[in-house]
Every structure is written in structure tokens, then in C-alpha cells.
Amino acid sequence: MPPKRKSSDFSELPPKKARTSAVQKPELTLGWLSQLTRADLESFSKEELVGYVLEIQAKESAVKAAAAQEDKGKLRAQAKKLADLMASGIEKQMKWQPSCKTGGKRWEYSAMVPSEAVFNELFNIKEQTKEWKQKKIPVKDFERITGEISASMRYGYLSLVKENVTLKWDREALSFSVSGYYGL
After folding, report:
1. Where is this region: Disordered (predicted)?
2. Which end of the chain is flanked by fewer CB atoms within 10 Å, N or C?
3. pTM for the complete prediction?
């Protein structure tokens, strides 16, 4: 076996300096602030707390300003694109089943939206005062949004049946789901 390489003598060099960690201000989030205990809050100086509150206010006003700045034309374009995708996705689910003759076959379409304003524009919802998670929309109103939804089959067409389409909205996830029935 060959001999190992000899190391050169480093005893003459001074040792490296130990790293000193600079006190960094943690990232400002509401989750971080909500986890602080009373003792943690008392350990901060008044100036630091005032600074945190001002940063939170600045971030909140920036988010509100960005939402208000969204152009109506851009919102309509995004809503139209989502409506077209929704109609296409529903039509792809419409396949002949024996239950189409009797009561209809169930379909469901889920999607995410970039903002609540786009969702409100898509479904023609005015600013809501009461929070909701599920609504029923008449099929005629739904087809005004998406256009007529139908799929051809061998000797006819499948279309939306029943009176209503169910709309479910998850505000935190910015996602929605619509479901209903199709048949002859």
C-alpha cells in the first residue's frame, strides 16, 4: 500500500475566528406574532413593537391596494377564460350512462382562482356581507356564465338536467367546486 500523503505544518497559522451570529429580526408574519407569549412581548422594546405594527399595516394596505388596482377588463378576461375551461371540463365528463335516461348522471368540476375578485366576477356575485360556503344556482343562470353545455352522443345530445347547480366556495384556498346532473 502506498504511504499516505503527509500534511504540511499548519501550526504557524492563527486559528479561524469563530462566527458571530448577528441578531436578525425574524420574518414578520401574523402566525409568528400570534405564537408570542406575554413574556416574549414584554422582552421587546416599545420601538420594536411599534415597528412591527407599522410593518403589518403597510403590508395589509399594500395587499388591499393591489386588489383594488386589478383592472376590470383583466378580471373579465380571467373570468371568461375560467368559464370556458369550466364548460370544457364539464363537457368532457358527459359520457353516456344508462342513468342518463332516468334521473341523470352526476358531474363535478373544481378549480382555483387567482383572487376572490375573479371568482365574484365569474359568478356575478356582488360584495357579500354574510360568509357562505355553498349556494344553489339555477341552471339557466349557470349556462349564461359558461354558455350552453351539451355533448353529442349517438342519437342525441346530453345536457344539464335538474333545476340547480351547486356552487361550493373555499375562501381560504381560493378554490371553488360546481356540481350537478346531466342527462337526456
Report:
1. 1-22
2. N
3. 0.56
